[in-house]
């Protein structure tokens, strides 16, 4: 990867990470409330939407890594699984494995 592409990738990753941090910091109040009382339907829906947004953000980072480091996006019916396998691979390009401790994707 050339330096321009690497800089672009780092900026995109930083932006996604900032969005994830904002998402996580904004949920603390709701999580604290749900620890002491059973969440109602609206709170459950909010938690589900926040979880989905967080997962999508992480997935976006992983997809970008796959494209930038492997040179191609993941495709096919099992692309989610393939993406996770690529991220945990110790033989990933540049020797980078994003998730070395994953035990659920084999």
Task: Provide a compact summary of the structure.
With 106 residues, the chain is an all-alpha fold. It is built from three helices and no strands. The chain is 70% helix and 0% strand.
Topology:
Layout: H1 3-36, H2 41-70, H3 79-88
Helix pairs in contact: 1-2, 2-3
Kindly describe this structure.
The structure is a single chain. With 106 residues, the protein is mostly helical. The protein has one domain. It contains 3 helices and no strands. Helix 1 (3-36) packs antiparallel against helix 2 (41-70) and helix 2 crosses helix 3 (79-88). The chain is elongated and about 50 Å long. Residues 99-106 have low confidence and may be disordered.
């Amino acid at each position: 990867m050339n330096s321009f592409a690497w800089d672009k990738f780092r900026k995109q990753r930083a932006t996604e990470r900032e969005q994830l941090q904002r998402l996580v910091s904004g949920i603390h109040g709701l999580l604290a409330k749900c620890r002491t009382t059973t969440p109602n339907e609206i709170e459950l829906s909010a938690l589900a939407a926040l979880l989905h947004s967080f997962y999508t953000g992480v997935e976006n980072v992983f997809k970008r890594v796959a494209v930038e480091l492997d040179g191609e996006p993941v495709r096919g019916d099992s692309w989610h699984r393939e993406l996770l396998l690529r991220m945990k691979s110790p033989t990933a390009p540049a020797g980078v494995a994003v998730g070395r401790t994953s035990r659920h994707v084999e």
